[in-house]
Specification:
569 residues, 3-stranded mixed sheet
Length: 569
Amino acid sequence: MSRPNHQLEAAVHQFSTQPGVTPDQVSQLRTAVAAESKTLDGLNTAAANGHLNGFALDEARGTQNSVGQYEKSSGVVSLPASAFSSSSAATGSDLAATVRVQSMIVAFSNSTYVDASGVQQRVSSDMSANLQSTLNGSPALVRELRRAAMTPDAAAPDHYALEHFAVLRPGLAAGGTYDGATHTMNLPAPALMTRSGNGSIGKFDVNDLTFVIGHEIQHGFNRSDKVRVVNEFNASIKRVAAGRGNVHDYTDPMQHYIQGSREDESKAEIAGWNALVSRQKKLKPGTTLNDMAMVSTSRTGDFVERDPQSPMRSIGRPDLAFNADLTLSQTPSNIEAMGKHYFDRPSKDYVTEKSIERPMALGDSHASDYANYYGRWPLQEIIAAEASSTLGRKGVSEMTIDMGTIGLKEDLLEREGMDLGKRSSWPYFDSTQLPSAPHRFDHTADGVNKNRYLPIEAAANGPLHRELRKLLPEGTSEDRLAQIALAAKQGGIEAGQIRTLDVQGDRLMMTGEIVGTRAIVDLNRAPPPAQESNQQFQATEQAQQQMMQEQQAQAQSAQQSGPVMSMGG
C-alpha cells in the first residue's frame, strides 16, 4: 500500500501542533489515515490538490454522533474528540470510519457536475455545508454512514457499501439514487442548495434530505441481495429462451426480479424513516407519531395517517409495527407493508383513487411508477435473450409476459426509453387476458422516438387492407376485413400480390402471385375484434421482417467469406 505523500504528512503535522492535541491522538490519526488504501489514496489526492490542508480537534462537537466537519474555504477537517480512543494509541473503529467519511466529503466538496442547462459547475461551499449539517443532524445517519463506509460489499469484496457522493444527473426525477456499480450516492444539486448559483432560492430541506440519505445508504447494504436477484433473473431467462416450445413465458422471472426491487426499496424506505425519526428525537426527545406527521417532508405520509376517530391527529399506519422509540425494524411484515404504501403507489397517469395523495413521478419521463422504472432493464435483457435463442432467430417464438399481474405498462416503459439495440421494435404477447394479446415494444432510448410511447398503429390503413376493401363486398365489417387481412399476411400474401379471391360455400379462398401463398377464412365463425386481428397483423409483419433481415445478413456474410488461409511453419 502507498504511503502518505508529503502534503498529507504536512496536514497531519499541522494537527500535532494544535493546543490540546496529545501525541496519542496524533498517532491514532496517522494510523487511521493510512489504515485503508481507498482512504489514503483519496486523502493523498486531496492534499496534493490543495483541498486538504490540515486536521483539527473539534471539542465543541465532541459527541459520538458526528462524522466531523470539512471547511472547504480553509481545507481543514475537524474531527470529533469522541472518535479518538482515550485508553491507548490504538485507533478505534469510530476514528477510522470518520476519516473515511471525511475523505468522501472532501472529494465531493471539490468535485464538479453538469447543471440543468448543460453547464459544468463546481460543488459550492453551500452545498457541502448543507450535506454535512444533514449528516450530523441525525445520530442514526452518522451511525449508518460510518458503517456503510467501512462495510465490504459482499458482491465486490474490494469495495465498500458506500465510497462516493456525487450530484445526480439533471432531468432524472428522483430524490436520490444509489449506483451499485460505483458504490456512489447521487443527490440532486437543488436539494443541496440553500441558494443556487444564480442567486435564486434552492430546494434544501434538511428533513427531506435526511430521509433520502438514510434511504440511499440502505441500498448499499442491500446490494449483495440485489446482485443475487439479478443473477437468478439472468439464469432464469436463459432457461426460458432455450425452451423448445414456441411460447416463451417470462412472467415468473420478471415477477421475481420486480419483487426483489420491491423489497430493496421497502427496506430503504424504512431506513429513511429511522434516520428522520433520529433527527427529530435529537431535536425533541419526546417526539410522537403525530409530531412526525407534521415534519416538513411529505415522505412521512407512507408511515402515518389521519386518525379516523380524531381527524386532527395522526397515527401510524395499522400494518406497520413501530418500536417504542418510533423506529421500524426490518421485519418481513414491515417490509411488505412498505411495499404496499411506497413501491406500489401508482404513476400519476394511472391514479384511480382519490386517496392517493402522492402518485409516483419517477425517471426521465417524470411519469413512471416503481414497477415500470425497474421493469425496463429486465425487459431489455429478455428481448436480447429471446433474439439470441434458436426459435427467436427464426421468428416463431412468442415472448409472453403477464403484464397486468406484474404491473407493467407499455406506455410508461417506452416513455422511460426502451433500448432495443439495433432493433426498431420487438413483438410480445400479453397474457393478462386469454388468449394472449399481441403487442410490441419499440426502441425509444434515442433517435426521433426518444422517450415517446408508440402505440400499435391501426393496420386498417395499410396497403393490404385498402386493396381488400376494394375486392370484398360492400358492407364487409371491419372485424371481418381485419380477419381476412391477417389470414393473407400469415399465408404470405402481400399487397399487390393477390391473384384470386373467391367465396366457396362458407369459406373464403385467396391465392397469391407467389407459388404456395394462400389463405382460407371460415365465414361461418364470427371474426375476432378488428383491434385484436390488427395487433396480430403487426406482430406477424415484424416477425417476417426480422427473419428477412437475418436471412439477408447470413447471405451477405456467406458471400464475403473466402477460403481460410494459414501460414505454415
